[in-house]
Amino acid sequence: MADPVRPDPTAVQQMLQRSRALWSSYAAETPDPRLPAECIQLRNILGRVPAFPTRTLEASGNPSTLRYTHTSYGLLIKGASTWRTSLGDCDLPAKTLFRDLLCGGLHPTACTFQDTPRCTEWPGVNGLDGHPAKGNHLAILFLAWAYILSARWLELQPSDHVKESIQPCGVQYSDLQAPWKSKDGDVQSDAIEVDLGVTCGHAVRWWAAILAPGERWHVQFEAEGKVYWSPWSARLATPQTLRL
């Protein structure tokens, strides 16, 4: 008998194909092809990302200690989710799924630019009719989100990590900055221009570090003598640069 909770890969692919065909038919009939505003809200984009615990508590409420595992691809903690039927008369037992969660990486994720129709043919977003900017700006937003999530991840580290020999190293900036259109005369001709608009000097310096190539900022912690990066650490590893 097939597992009613976890279908096999063939059933998953069949359902995925039917779902794509159904939603594609709806998209073809809609008079407004633009995406709903909820699609670009970070909270919705991260809906499937598990929350890191800010306090080490067991289900009973008693203090506990997170157990970390050093591996060849990062620092892991064990996570589990329990699925139960909530409505109706069903005798299916609860199912507990275990998963390793990445708490710290060995290096930042390398990011590159690609010219694909999925990104270049942007339908627009409802509710932003008065916004003068064109395009989706996903690359810029991704690099900014990577820093914001990494900084927040560092803030949420429990204070009792000290007992686990885990010491946050804080946020550190390198000297790398994105080139400026008015200052750097040797900027490559195919550089992507980013207009920051009217803003303060602190914000300009922040964007210059966020959009610079290479490892612009570091959010790290040390665990038992080993240094790890935040799971969202990213570096721009592409020949094409962003110019302010």
Task: Give a description of the structure.
The chain has 244 residues and is of the alpha/beta class. The protein has 5 helices and 10 strands, in the order ααββββααββαββββ. It has helices at 9-29, 42-45, 117-120, 138-155, 201-210, and strands at residues 68-71, 74-83, 95-104, 109-111, 166-173, 192-193, 217-223, 226-229, 234-236, 242-243. It has a 3-stranded antiparallel β-sheet, with no helix packed on it. A 3-stranded antiparallel β-sheet has the order 5-7-8, with helices on one face. Strands 4-9 form a two-stranded parallel sheet. A hairpin with a 2-residue loop joins strand 1 (68-71) and strand 2 (74-83). The longest helix is centred in the first third of the chain and has 21 residues, at 9-29.
Keywords:
flat, single chain, 3-stranded antiparallel sheet, 5 helices, 22% strand, alpha/beta, 244 residues
Strand content: 15-25%
Shape: flat
The quaternary state of the protein chains shown equals: single chain
Sheet/helix structural class? alpha/beta
Largest sheet entry:
3 strands, antiparallel
Q: How much helical structure, as a percent, in the residues?
A: 10-25%
Distance between the ends: 60 Å
Low-pLDDT residue intervals, each spanning 5 or more residues: 56-60
- Neighbour order of strands in the largest sheet: 1-2-3
User: Helical segment tally?
Assistant: 5
Tell me the number of strands. 10
Mean pLDDT: 77
Task: Give the radius of gyration.
Answer: 23 Å
Order of helices and strands: HHEEEEHHEEHEEEE
